[in-house]
Amino acid sequence: MNNEFLLHTADTDELQDKNYLDEYSRTVTDVVKATSKSIVNIKTRKPPAGRPVQNIYPTFAMGSGFVISSNGIILTNHHVVNNIGEIIVTTPDGKEYPAKIIGADAATDIALLKIEASGLNPLTFTDSDRLEPGQIAIAIGNPLGFQHTVTSGIVSALGRTLRTQSGRLIDDVIQTDAAINPGSSGGPLLNSKGHVIGVNTAIIKGAQGICFSVSANIAKYIATELLTKGKIKRAYLGIIGQNVNLPNDLINQWGLVKKTAVYIGGVDNKSGVENSALQKGDILIQLNDQVVGSIDDLHKLLTEKCINKELNLKIIRKGKLLELKVTAGELS
Which residue has the higher pLDDT, 59 or 69? Predict the structure, then answer.
């Protein structure tokens, strides 16, 4: 009896043929190829505490980021570069650049860096309000120092609320099962076209397949403000909110313009905010005659012009339309 056996393998030409890949694999590989030149590695080192010890140097921590402007503007997470003494950005071609922080916002965990480089390849943001659970999500970053690691999954849920390391809450967070590990923070979450739908920011320790990204719309708005003003000064209503779909009978009853609004999941009676008229369970649909269809809308409306000002709100409470007044404080 012949004990020899034969392993069947595809020939080289077949393996190199793009048609060998299924549609999902082609989508992911095309995104990786299109965006690979835009993802950077970020090394950070904190200044030594107390007196320096000779010949002993603090080790680098790792993070990720991506190019948003060809002249060297990098977007990453605030927690990646917060309280850091030295920042080194490594581009995909292996070049290292010292970086400086040009703006940061702990409330949304977004920060911008500047490196002295030109001709870089920026990524494109898409409208994250149009995301739907179940669509493809691709994360690229540098987890645990392993550069340019690609993971993929789906958008698991929308409108999550996440508490940052600073203790502040980020609203309108995207939940995904695309694996995000330490060192991936600050990298992009991409759709099937290679456009940014979020900025990878957090995981839940001990859980599998539960990762979070700041939505592209919030990241884009914050980045624009940081570029033009250098800091974010915003008003604060003292609420915990999330996006909610409105039932058709409510839309028709009150002639609402948008099919979504902001559900108030909690009220924080913070000093400087007079919001006693609000209750948990209220649905916010309008602020100062401006329609509020999402957390993104609310963030854009709560500018520094609203600080210490009386604001007119329209809310739905137990099916009834109410008009209320609150006084906004400043988000510290």
Answer: 69
Nearest-angstrom CA–CA distance, 36 and 34? 6
* C-beta of residue 284 within 8 angstroms of C-beta of residue 301: no
70 is catalytic: no
For the question of residue 64 being annotated catalytic, the response is no
Residue ranges and CATH numbers for the domains of the chain are 128-229 (2.40.10.10), 235-330 (2.30.42.10)
Which among 64, 128, 156, 185 is annotated as catalytic?
Answer: 185
Question: Catalytic: which of 78, 79, 195, 299?
Answer: 79
Burial letters 61-86, b for 16+ CB under 10 A, else e: bbbbbbbbeeebbbbbbbbbbbebee
pTM score, whole prediction: 0.71
d(CA 232, CA 242): 21
Catalytic pick among 109, 172, 282, 297: 109
Q: Measure the CA–CA gap between 196 and 200, rounded to whole angstroms.
A: 10
Mean pLDDT computed over 10-18: 56
Instruction: Decide if 268 is catalytic.
Output: no
